[in-house]
Amino acid sequence: MLPFSFEKVRTEQDAIRAAAAGARYIAGGTTLIDLMRDEVERPERLVDINALPMADIRADGADLVIGALARMSDVAAHRETKRLQPLIAESLIEGASPQLRNMASMGGNLLQRVRCPYFRMLDAACNKRDPGSGCSAIDGLNAGHAILGTSNHCVATHPSDVAVALVALGATMRVRGPQGERAFPVEELFRLPGDTPHLEHTLHPGELIVEIRVPGGPYARQARYLKVRDRASYEFALVSAAVALETEGDTIRQARVAVGGVGTRPWRMRAVEEALRGKPVGRDTFTAAAHLALEGTRPLSHNHYKVELLPRTIVRALEMAGGTA
């Protein structure tokens, strides 16, 4: 690990001022410190923001409001999360080991870097780590890589589980920075790689995530998260699906579907949602709709299995949410 300076801040203004001058925020540090040890990340200055009052978890009417510094374990266990948005709790539990959930912050989880092995190999070409160097994964070992949203410059998947649930539920986020405060959908935080894969999010320099708001809805109670992976714990998704259904009798009034493990960012499946609306609950409906998830897929040499696994995962998650599993 290369030398760096470290300071704690007590106010948002001090944090934003330091970050605008080139410092990096650190909260749980569960990703950043690992990357610093490998010299993939080389910040010269870290600013500890844990003293900022942004760890609250509360209900605001039917909405769940989560402070950006709330730990994953606290959010998953909180009574309001379980009452209002059990899908969030399930995705958090599936997303990391208990030790990591105790350390990792919600804001940091959304901003975690990709888990592509070539990103961590300093002797491999990686446009995220070294723009313009190339992408070793495209012609390399790419079984875990993306089939949606890829480019000729990057095929890495976004690793967050809870981000998939937040995108499915239409969550928004509030940020503050040198230019003031703004709010936008969580889905808009994540960039497609295009020809600039080193630019992973839409935050402006110095901006700080303050809170996440998950809107209430009649679909919130009938929601499930399914994660398919190589082993039962401490593993990233091959394919995952966050689904939520509002039903009236045997008819689907509204559906929310997002997937992970297959996209360069959490991927909202709006065509699948539209195909489910107004249809009867059941495997035939789920199967026909899930097939639409394959639109735009671009499998690589070793991850073609995801083309078959993706719709199957969505169908199974829908069956779990719809009570037909």
Keywords, separated by commas or semicolons:
12 strands; 325 residues; globular; four-stranded antiparallel sheet; 21% strand; five-stranded antiparallel sheet; Enolase-like, domain 1; Uridine Diphospho-n-acetylenolpyruvylglucosamine Reductase, domain 2
Description of the molecule:
Keywords: FAD, Flavoprotein. GO terms for molecular function: FAD binding; oxidoreductase activity. The protein has 325 residues and is an alpha+beta fold. Among the domains are: 5-50, Uridine Diphospho-n-acetylenolpyruvylglucosamine Reductase, domain 2 (2-Layer Sandwich), CATH 3.30.43.10; 223-322, 2-Layer Sandwich (Enolase-like, domain 1), CATH 3.30.390. It has twelve helices and twelve strands. It has helices at 12-20, 32-37, 72-77, 79-84, 86-95, 98-103, 106-110, 117-120, 162-168, 270-276, 283-290, 305-322; strands at residues 5-8, 24-26, 45-48, 57-60, 63-67, 172-177, 180-185, 208-214, 223-228, 239-248, 251-260, 267-268. Strands 4-5-8-6-7 form a five-stranded antiparallel beta sheet. Strands 9-10-11-12 form a four-stranded antiparallel beta sheet. It has a three-stranded parallel beta sheet with strand order 1-3-2, covered by helices on one side. A hairpin with a 2-residue loop joins strand 6 and strand 7. Helix 11 packs antiparallel against helix 12. The longest helix has 18 residues, at 305-322. The protein is globular, with a radius of gyration of 19 Å. The protein starts with a strand and ends with a helix. The model has no long low-confidence stretch (mean pLDDT 96).
